[in-house]
Every structure is written in C-alpha cells, then in structure tokens.
Amino acid sequence: MGLQTQLRRAIAVYRFVALGYPVLLGALAFDALQRPVAAAALVALLIGWTAAVSYRYTRNGYEPKVVYTDLAVTAAAVALSAWALAVSDRAWPISLGPWLAGIVLVWGAAWGRRSGAVAGGVIAVFGMVFRGGINENTVNEAALLVLTGFTMGHLVRLGVEAEERTRRATERDAAARERERLARDIHDSVLQVLALVQRRGNEIGGEAAELGRLAGRQEEALRALISSEAYRHPLDGRRDLRELIGRHAGESVTVAAPATPVRLPTATAQEVAAAVASAVDNVREHCPDGTRVWLLVEDDGEAVTVSVRDDGPGIAPGRLAAAAAEGRLGVAQSIEGRVRELGGTVQVVSGPGQGTEIEMRVPRPREGDADGDAHRGR
C-alpha cells in the first residue's frame, strides 16, 4: 500500500470525523436555529457527498473532474450554510469548520502545495462573501485553510520522494545480491570450465591450443567483469563510463577518454559498456593475434560517442548483412540493438585490409530522466 493510498483513506476518515463539528454545534444551538429542517437537510447532504466522493477517491485516485467537482460542492456548501445554519441570537451562522479543510487536503495531496493553497484561498473567499465579510473569524479561517493546503502538499511531496528513494534503495540491494550470486555461480562453473579448456588445449596443441587461447581470453574478461566495482554496485544512480570501458585497457587495447568523468545513468552506462565489450570481443575472435584496438570516448554535452577502431583485416562488403541472415547477430544485436534501444546510432566503417571502426553515439539523457522524477512541477 503506497503513501498516496494511505493518505486518501486518512483524508476520508478525517472528513467524516470533521462533520461532527457542525453537527455538534447545530445540536447545541438547535432551539436557536432559524431553519432547523434546512440545517438537518444540509448535514445529510454533506454526509452523503462525503461518503460518495471518499469512496471514489479510495477506488480510483484523484480524478481531475471529481476533484474540481468536490471543490465546487464545498464552495456551494459554504454558501448554503450561511442560510441553513443561521442562528437567531448570532450575527453569523454556524461554521462548517474543520470539514472545509477536507477539500484543501485533497487538493494538496493530489497536486501539490500550490494547488492546496489555491483551494484554501477559494474556500476562504466564499466564507468571507457569505459569512459576514472580512472579520477576525473569516481572516483566521482563511489563514488556516491556505496554510493547511500548502503544508499538506509540501509534506506529500517529501513523503513521495522518500518513498521513491526507499524503493530505489531496495532495488539496488536486491540487484546487488542477485549479481553477487551470479558472480559466484559464474566463478564456480563457467570460469572453471574455461580454465580447464585453456589448460587442456595447451596440452593437446594444434587447433585445440587456439581454442584454449580463446577460452583464456574469455576467462580473463569474465574475471575482470565480476570483480569490478561496476558489476558489484550496478545501480548507484550514475556511473562514470570511463571506469567501465577502462577495464579493457591492456597490451593490445588503448583507451583514450576525457580527463573529467563521463557520468551517465547506470543502466545507460552499462548498456554502452556492454556494446563496447561486444565490439572488443569481435576483434579478439575474428582478427589475428597482435591486432591492436583503440577505444575513444568523447562527450560533447549533448551525446556521448564511443569509437572502437582496430587495425585488423577489415570486414568484406556485405559480410555483416550475411552474418545477420545466418543468425550470427553479434553486431546486429549486441551492439546495434543495445545502442538503438538507448536512442543512439551505430556507424560501421570498414574495408578489406583497412581495419574496422565502429562508432556508437548515445544521446545524454535529461537530468530528470535518471531518477524518474514523478513530481516535476510541484
């Protein structure tokens, strides 16, 4: 049960309890009421409306048309109360009192502090118009209503933000535990198999030695991945892309990146890093030993571009399309698919004997997109 659901129920209970104020005052001054039948009818109407609208809020949330109608009904009730709750020995009628704050709480909870203050101001104006003009009572009531709406909206915003932070923290912890479990499983199974393949391949020699060499490279890459901070803490909000790509640096791989952090939302940074890893793996798999790879990271503020260039034999024209048709989707899915889902583009430039360059350009998400800001404009 979320915070908003609990608030809707709490406000519904408050509005019913608040109806006790005009009922009690009306009962105490019943003999002095100028129109007791009208007073009883008004109270009955308020009970019915409160029940109906509270039920609607609880089931369907704050629908705009219902919230606006609720404000109109409350304003009409203020006007009617000046006639139905008039008392013979008083200059002003019995007030609906705390019940009026119900709609103010609704507006604050539904649309924020400004809306809550506006609703309080509207009800306060009706009170001044129909209940004796501007005097100490109506001014005090106006101040209380406006402050109630403003405070309610502010507290709801803080509560929803705290709830969202708690949810994200829970997801981070769950994801971290799951990834640690997967890392253990990989270590106990996949890495052991790759190590065995590498050892036996070297012992057998020939083509088996080449398989052993490839298995050794994969083992090394997997060990680097599961031991990295980026793997153990995948959802820390934003990650430095340089940190994720820099793990490829080695004897045959050169990494060039800006001096300042290239921070992206964690999910975006991980997908870009995975695409780069796939491109590097393609070089290791399809190019001869000694092929050099250069990784270049660029950040122009609007987008982040990562280029993977090698001095290998290159790709023959039409080879990528043919590989995709054969079901070998390394470039099509591992690279292009990932980048495309991020709203980016991939450009492959290659030719026989000319090496290959894969340029991945990903637009930088807007600042609010990283945190899923659900309260923009409040």
UniProtKB/TrEMBL annotation:
KW Transferase (keyword) present: yes
Compositionally biased region (Basic and acidic residues): 358-378
UniProt-annotated stretches for the region Disordered: 350-378
UniProt entry keywords in alphabetical sequence: Kinase, Membrane, Transferase, Transmembrane, Transmembrane helix, Two-component regulatory system
Bilayer-crossing regions: 12-30, 36-55, 67-86, 92-110, 117-134, 140-160
Pfam family, one: HATPase_c
InterPro entries: DUF5931, HATPase_C_sf, HATPase_dom, Sensor_HK_TwoCompSys, Sig_transdc_His_kin_sub3_dim/P
Signal sequence region: none
UniProt GO molecular function: kinase activity
Positions of the Histidine kinase/HSP90-like ATPase domain: 267-366
Protein's recorded name: MacS family sensor histidine kinase
Organismal lineage: Bacteria, Bacillati, Actinomycetota, Actinomycetes, Glycomycetales
